[in-house]
Design brief:
Elements lengths: L5 E4 L2 E4 L4 H34 L4 H20 L3 H25 L18 E9 L2 E9 L6 E5 L8 H7 L8 E6 L17 H18 L5 E6 L1 H12 L4 E7 L5 H18 L3 H9 L1
Helix pairs in contact: 1-2, 1-3, 2-3, 5-6, 7-8
């Protein structure tokens, strides 16, 4: 039998109604719970990704996973609940930062294998630091035969990291070359290699040529091939202009030619596009800029 929660008013009995404040509190609680769930998932992401995307040993990511599960349970174990939420989220943030640090410490590029999963004899697959003009920067080296010609890949950007995407996109080239992917200063694993406020095209050119010299000596090559994408295609031109005798050839993809002219063309296109849409506010903003 259902009962009705009621209040007495004079000689009358009226059902208790849900006031606006109570509804708002319920909605706020629901939204807060959803936000808390999303934040928890975000903080757990570094640990979730460890097994599938990094070379961190299983012992570490299992410990991190257990730690996260314990921290997630704290709001249900500690009183008041708010205290458990704060400690749990703070702890998960700390675990996530440790997981990210560990992923960098154990970073590697996978070996080049045959159809049976065995490393190919004479191949090379390495992720390592090199000293260029006094700063430590990172490169990956991949090739099925380390005696093949060297091809240096210059990623787009500046500030672009393509260690993973280029490894997959250039996998076919590793059949015919020793492919070197340079993490340029200010990007990826070379993010803090130099003071980023001092980065200039000249710095990229001299560091790139220093890397070419290192590769020539390491692999006993008189010349190397150069492959540049977007910003890397322009950097490649400058490097070849400076020391043409060091290169067999330069290959440019997404070739950049005239920076200022390119920017002006894009600017004019953006204004025409906004005008076509009747977006006068966007046109005014572009013209002020």
């Amino acid at each position: 039998m259902k009962t009705i929660d009621a209040i007495h008013v004079g000689d009358h009995v009226r059902p208790r109604s849900f006031g606006l404040g109570r509804i708002l509190r319920t909605v706020a609680l629901a939204l807060g719970s959803i936000l808390l769930l999303l934040l928890t998932m975000l903080l757990a992401l570094p640990v979730i990704l460890l097994p599938s995307t990094t070379a961190v040993p299983a012992l570490f990511w299992v410990v991190f996973a257990i730690a996260d599960m314990v921290l997630i349970s704290l709001p249900f174990r500690l009183a008041p609940t708010g205290r458990g939420v704060v400690i749990g989220l703070g702890g998960m943030m700390a675990v996530g930062l440790i997981a990210i640090t560990m992923s960098q410490f154990f970073a590697m590029t996978p070996p080049i294998t045959d159809t049976q999963g065995n490393a190919i004899s004479g191949s090379i697959a390495s992720l390592e630091k090199v000293k260029l003009n006094g700063s430590e920067q990172w490169i990956s080296i991949r090739g099925k035969d380390r005696s093949k010609p060297v091809l240096l890949f210059l990623a787009g950007g500046p500030g672009g990291s393509q260690l993973v995407t280029a490894r997959r996109a250039l996998a076919g080239l590793a059949d015919h070359f020793v492919v070197v992917n340079w993490e340029q200063p200010g990007a990826g694993k070379s993010f803090d290699a130099v003071d980023r406020s001092t980065l200039t095209p000249e710095r990229y050119i001299t560091d790139g040529l220093e890397l070419v010299s290192y590769l020539q000596k390491r692999f006993d090559e008189e010349k190397v091939y150069l492959l540049g994408e977007s910003w890397g295609s322009a950097l490649g031109i400058w490097m070849v202009q400076r020391e043409p005798e060091s290169f067999h050839a330069l290959i440019g993809t997404g070739q950049m030619v005239a920076f200022l002219e390119n920017d002006l063309m894009c600017y004019d296109f953006a204004i025409r596009w906004a005008q076509t849409r009747g977006d006068t506010e966007k046109v005014e903003k572009l013209q002020k800029q």
